[in-house]
């Protein structure tokens, strides 16, 4: 019954209508979304806003965050606040979580979504770039989760991690990004086990996404993408249903299931496709 209720409420979010107040809905939920100035994070913020949540969004660019927060308020967010933060610095993740917890009086959802810039090209040997991307895409996720866990334990809340098929299935020309997503998946899968073993009430969802039509992704490849709004809705649904793992679009699950069946042909195909898709 809860699944149907959440499904109906989320359908309302997709069609842009205001969700009704109901148990199982996200109305009033206290949500922190990272990387919410553009792309999937921006769409996540709008989904939560349409469902009447209280939203804190974060990224680096204040002027863009201001506009997204204003739109969240128009869409029906009970609260729409922003806080700037650079996830490449070690002090900002805990400062951002503290802001959200203080302003919202606690936290129900921590949605980890931001990523630093990277290019779609063969690895150039730039170790500095890999280290920097690890800081933004991985270590800041660990810091944010660690800072938020005490509040999430109190609220029986959720961590939602936006990850990538590339964190399960390596392809050429994305080595630094792929490394960070493998680290994210490895860390948070392990944390899932530990939360379960100590019967924690905190749920942890890892959403594995394939190519989505955000501006930054479209600069890199020519494969036909899936819409960011739909991807965001998928992530919100998986988090609210407290699923351990979710896949969007459908083919990402299939790829994960069959990836080791025939490694020789798999690698031949990947290398051929990657060569054709390089801009
Ligand atoms: P975008 O590049 O569109 O957005 C990245 C967000 O992160 C922006 O809001 C940006 O805002 C913020 N950001 C970048 N650097 C920092 C930083 N140093 N500190 C704080 N915030 C930062 O990404 P997408 O929407 O494409 O991707 C979102 C998530 O979805 C990622 O986790 C990605 O791995 C995953 N994903 C995306 C796919 C796709 O095809 N798009 C496919 C698979 C997974 P600002 O510049 O203002 O700081």
Brief digest:
With 279 residues, the protein is α/β, with parallel strands linked by helices.
Description:
By secondary structure, the chain is an alpha/beta fold. The chain has a single domain (2-277), classed as 3-Layer(aba) Sandwich (Rossmann fold), CATH 3.40.50.720. 52% of the residues lie in helices and 14% in strands. The protein contains ten helices and seven strands. It binds NADPH dihydro-nicotinamide-adenine-dinucleotide phosphate (NDP). The site of NADPH dihydro-nicotinamide-adenine-dinucleotide phosphate has 29 residues, from helix 2, strand 5 and helix 7.
Query: How many domains would you count in the coordinates?
Result: 1
> What name is given to the CATH topology?
Rossmann fold
Helix content: 40-55%
Bound compounds, each kind once, are: NADPH dihydro-nicotinamide-adenine-dinucleotide phosphate
* Cα-to-Cα separation, first versus last residue: 47 Å
Keywords:
single chain; 279 residues; alpha/beta; Rossmann fold; seven-stranded parallel β-sheet; 10 helices; 7 strands; 52% helix; globular; disordered N terminus; binds NADPH dihydro-nicotinamide-adenine-dinucleotide phosphate
